Amino acid sequence: MSAEALVATRAAGLAQLQAVLPRLGRAYAAGRNLDHGPGRPQAVSGLSPWIRRRLVTEEEVARAAVAAHGGAADKFVEEVIWRGYFKGWLERRPQVWSNYLRGRDADLERLARDAKLQARVAAAEAGRTGLACFDAFAQELVATGTLHNHARMWFASLWIFTLGLPWRLGADFFLRHLLDGDPASNTLGWRWVAGLHTRGKVYAATAANIAQYSGGRFAPRPEDIVTPAHGLEAEEPGGWPALQPLRALIAPQRDVPSLWLITEEDCGLTGLFPDSFAWRGAATLSASQLRSPRPVASRVATFEAAALRDAATRTGFPATELTANDPAALVACARDAGATQIVTAEVPQGPLRDWLTAAAPALAAAGITLAEWRRPWDATLWPFATAGFFKVRERIPRLLAEMRVA
């Protein structure tokens, strides 16, 4: 499906699931690493923009794949669980997100005063480095808002080790342009490539791998690609940051006058909150602009806005459209609705979580409680996202059984 054909509605996401369902078994496992290029058939599902906003949920796609293919869907289900693993890992180590922001802002300050770095970053983002594969990936990302997962890994490796650019600026570039840009998957994916997530291991792009899995579209020379002797472990001596307990949520109270707040973190609404809540209205909160101090692609903001509108329509309430700028607007919306409780699906680590944390004093001063609900999928998976993915992978059959997927 072309980027132009992506429609940010639950109906479109479900249609995409039905379209790709026949190939989520052995065909996915065999071909998922092949990137044939934009506009050409791929073995991957193309579901991630909808899953990112939970217009279609991880549980739904995993259940559908298992029902259609049984054990042959294991690789697809594993990739779906990777997304939850990364979210849970960042929830258990929120300081990694804070450290990323501090490092990114320091890199942006350096960028502002270093003309040579500006030129190098600008060339990389525009796809003008002279390295044909990298340039094609950069141009595809900017033009479509999408990029094959294997190409993302190649791109990150080339950005860090061959071009020698700050990894956080690359992660910021992705987050500003990817329709499925997710703070956890994006940050930890770049850290994994850089050797910061799994210590002692980096993802090193090679000329042979790119040639093979791009279907021969590219044939870089081995000497054009740097093979790193080690990762960036020196940035964070001492290993992984300390593990923390999952954030305690304020549980929604059914008998309290409530405003239903919809964010791009969960537009699915499937089974979220019962009708017995004392609803007084609904609001959507757009937050694309929080992804970066630099301009965020209009394609991302447009997709988010459409997803929020679709979700609001399915609440059955007229919804006020808000933007995550001044918290006073959120306070006023709740007050106008006669609500003393704002209820939303859990907002995990990322820019919107930071904004809501900063808005908490204004809400509290107005006598408004922000209550969140954690989906069972996350509640089941996140407690095990404490170390490497292997700890989660070996529990997948049990986790699927607990989540009634298999």
The ordered H/E elements are HHHHHHHHHHHHEEHEHEHEHHH
Radius of gyration from the CA trace?
21 Å
Mean pLDDT: 94
What is the total number of structural domains?
3
CATH level-two architecture of the largest domain: Orthogonal Bundle
Main-sheet strand order equals 3-2-1-4-5
Distance between the termini: 29 Å
CATH superfamily of the largest domain: DNA Cyclobutane Dipyrimidine Photolyase, subunit A, domain 3
Counting DSSP E segments of at least 2 residues, the number of strands comes to 5
Q: What does the largest sheet look like?
A: 5 strands, parallel
Class from helix and strand fractions: alpha/beta
Portion in beta strands: 5-15%
Unreliable parts: none
- Determine the fraction of residues in helical runs and give it as a percent range: 40-55%
Q: How many alpha or pi helices?
A: 18
Task: Provide the CATH topology of the largest domain.
Answer: DNA Cyclobutane Dipyrimidine Photolyase, subunit A, domain 3
CATH class category label of the largest domain: Mainly Alpha
Mass-distribution shape? globular
Report on the structure:
- The protein is an alpha/beta fold and 406 residues long.
- The protein has three domains: 3-91 and 381-402, Serine Threonine Protein Phosphatase 5, Tetratricopeptide repeat, CATH 1.25.40; 96-235, Orthogonal Bundle (DNA Cyclobutane Dipyrimidine Photolyase, subunit A, domain 3), CATH 1.10.579.10; 258-373, HUPs (Rossmann fold, 3-Layer(aba) Sandwich).
- Helices cover 50% and strands 7% of the residues.
- It contains 18 helices and five strands.
- The protein has helices spanning 10-20, 26-31, 48-52, 58-69, 74-92, 94-113, 115-126, 132-144, 149-162, 167-177, 183-194, 207-213, 298-315, 327-337, 351-365, 376-381, 389-393, 396-402; strands spanning 258-263, 279-286, 319-323, 341-345, 369-373.
- The chain has a five-stranded parallel sheet, with helices on both faces.
- Strand 4 (341-345), helix 15 and strand 5 (369-373) form a beta-alpha-beta unit.
- It starts with 9 loop residues before the first helix and ends with a helix.
- The mean pLDDT is 94.
